[in-house]
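JOB MANIFEST
job_type = single_chain_structure
chain_count = 1
residues = 442
[input]
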Amino acid sequence: MKIAMIGTGYVGLVSGVCFSDFGHEVVCVDKDPAKLAKLNAGEVPIYEPGLDDLMAKNVAAGRLSFSGDLSVAVDGADAVFIAVGTPTRRGDGHADLTYVMAAATEIAQALTGYAVVVTKSTVPVGTNRKVAETIAAANPQADFDVASNPEFLREGAAIDDFMRPDRIVVGVESERAAEVMQAIYRPLYLRDFPIMTTDLESAEMIKYAANAFLATKITFINEIASLCERTGADVKMVSKGMGMDGRIGNKFLHAGPGYGGSCFPKDTSALARIGQDYAVPMQLTETVIKVNEEVKRRMVEKVFDLCGGSVNGKTVAVLGVTFKPNTDDMRDAPSLTIVPTLVGNGAKVRVVDPQGFREGEALLPGVVWTEDVYEATKDADAVVLLTEWNEFRALDLARIAEDMTTPVMADLRNIYSPDDAKAAGFTAYTSIGRSDYQLASD
């Protein structure tokens, strides 16, 4: 099969590379000359473990290429995937479909034969029908079908998610389109991974419903964590006990500083707006959004309390600023609320993150970036553990405590325990949903 992938952002690039590894001929299209230059030089513009090697393998095999010419990529393609951004529209929370519709218009003008135009971007219910209308209006002679094929990729584990998915969701309206999609995903079908065929609207809704539910689980356990802190319960034990229930499951029940990233914030916001548009308020999702913002602010209060009520003039070492480990993605990361608040209140902030500098340098002005945890924490007045990178899971806490001016820690991912911190010499320790301590000063 010949595939054109419009957009080489996170979803488009990962999908295009993986489709080429299935044996398909894939051309990834992007309008950014600088990004194309990097891709054609073998450089991956995002951080995703294993993606660079897989991309190089398929480029060398002649199955994968990159182009700025959409018409050449679309010419003769069996399927054209739209994988452009759908950011939250400023001012109203809706998904911005500008790039999707622009891509649809260009695709229409480039079609030379039958093709399935597949929306891979996360889009509101009804978008695929609008894509079809746009193509038909731009090229009344076009021979095409539309399909909805939402992605369910976790940043940091995207290749494994693509190659070993929980399910593939395909929304189509014709048998012809269904056959093309089945041929594209045949390698997964032969390995018995479930492929679910639905109508267009159901496929679009599945993506939003899934992400909203996962965001709800995260927010629920963060609210329970707040209650645990007041009652003396341990949220790690609570979440473990909950997760043993097969009806609940143990995933997305880890208390932390709130969800962020490329999907949950914009998708929950878009779902809330969709509900309002159809006069069916998504009250639970609206509350999740509100509570998640409150969680981030509560994390700031924890750091302030740890520092005696003020961070003015104090040096704070922040370990991790990406929204999760194994990615360089900073979109809606809790750090974008917490770190600027610290800086704005007079703190001198040092940041360590294995990949966060790429985006974080522009997003977090006024901080000092270091590559070494022990350099960042030396003579610091507080350390804040914000992202659970593996590099931060086995630190020499005693060395850190000894080298700090004031050995206090805010462990906002519950990587360590109060006993660990106390034994290492920390005079104060705060975490999420567990008992904190503060030793009496001499």
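[summary]
The longest strand covers residues 2-6.
The chain has a mean pLDDT of 96.
exit_status = 0
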